[in-house]
Amino acid sequence: MTGVAQDFAGRVALVTGTSGMGLAAALRLARGGARVHLCGVDAASNAAAAEAARGLPVAVHLCDIAQDDQVAGWVDDVMVDETGIDILVNAAGIQTYGDLETTTIADWDRVMGVNLRGAFLTSHFCWPHMKGRRGAIIHISSVQGHANQFGVLGYATTKGAVHAMTRAMAVDCAKHGIRVNSISPGSVRTPLLEYGAAQLAKPGETMEDMIATFGAAHPVGRVGTVEEVAEMVAYLCSDAAAFVTGADFRIDGGLTAWLGV
Questions:
Q1: From the candidates 97, 155, 195, 235, which is the catalytic residue?
Q2: In a 10 Å sphere around its CB, with 0-12 CB exposed, 13-18 middle and 19+ buried, how is residue 200 labelled?
Q3: Which helix (H) or strand (E) holds 249?
């Protein structure tokens, strides 16, 4: 039996997001033998990711995925050293808060730019280098694309759109041998979740108190880990998932299965 270290031997993976789920996915794929090109917009996060990946075949690039010229440049840089791309994982994302009244136009444009436009741009520019290689594209979405909290209009809209984009891409890409799926995590301990917890904590509550509250809302009684999401990414990118495309996979500790009443 082929060991974990050989799962992705010889494959080239591009991953967006140098913290949280993006970093975890990059490390998992690299430990499985892939050559990984990871990108992020924050220099400090990029440096921390490079340190976390020390000794693994991971190259870290500076790129704002909402900007088409930067995405095109990132892919061009990758292709200087590679002959093709087998895996794309779109994990970079931002969180905004607000309802129809309080969501600003700037926040709307910003979350659309990163969460939706960014996933399209990376897919668009990687596509010519993926055709015919029997690869996989994974979009990290959210349970907020299925059901919503209050006050997440912009964010939830992007995640629902990612689900639709996944289906459309899967249908179009199948004849070229590329599978496209999405993953919808519940509450997972990431810098983004910590930011949200700090924003939502009531007077007298800490960020940790709020994260515990998030965990209690899941039937399993806790928030998830980035490593658990990375294992789902690895499965969907592997040959074991060769008949899986156009689907969304909830990794949410039972959150969306529970009525909560």
A1: 155
A2: middle
A3: strand 248-251
Considering the entire predicted model, what is its pTM?
0.94
Chain segment 185-239, per-residue pLDDT in tens: 999 999 888 988 988 888 999 999 999 999 999 999 999 999 999 999 999 999 9
Cβ–Cβ under 8 Å, residues 233 and 89: yes
Closest CA to 117 of 135, 94, 137, 99: 94
153-166 burial by CB neighbour count: b if 16+ within 10 A, else e? bbbbbbbbbbbebb
8-state DSSP, 152: B
The whole-angstrom separation of Cα 237 and Cα 253 is 22
Q: Could you give the 3-state DSSP secondary structure of residue 75?
A: helix
Q: Provide the 10 A C-beta neighbour count for residue 77.
A: 15
φ, ψ of residue 120 to 5 degrees: the values are: -65, -45
> Encoding tokens for residue 98?
């607000």
- pLDDT, tens digit, 9 for 90 and up, residues 10-31: 999 999 999 999 999 999 999 9
pLDDT score of 192: 84
Q: Are 28 and 230 in contact (CB under 8 A)?
A: yes
Query: Is there a contact between 215 and 222 (Cβ–Cβ < 8 Å)?
Result: yes
Structural tokens at position 234: 């690895």
Query: In CATH, what number does 4-188+224-253 get?
Result: 3.40.50.720
The single-letter DSSP state of residue 63 is -
- Contact, 195 vs 214, CB < 8 A? no
Summarize pLDDT for 166-184 with one digit per residue, the tens. 999 999 999 999 999 999 9
HSE on the CB side for 5, CA within 13 Å?
Answer: 2
97 is an active site residue: no
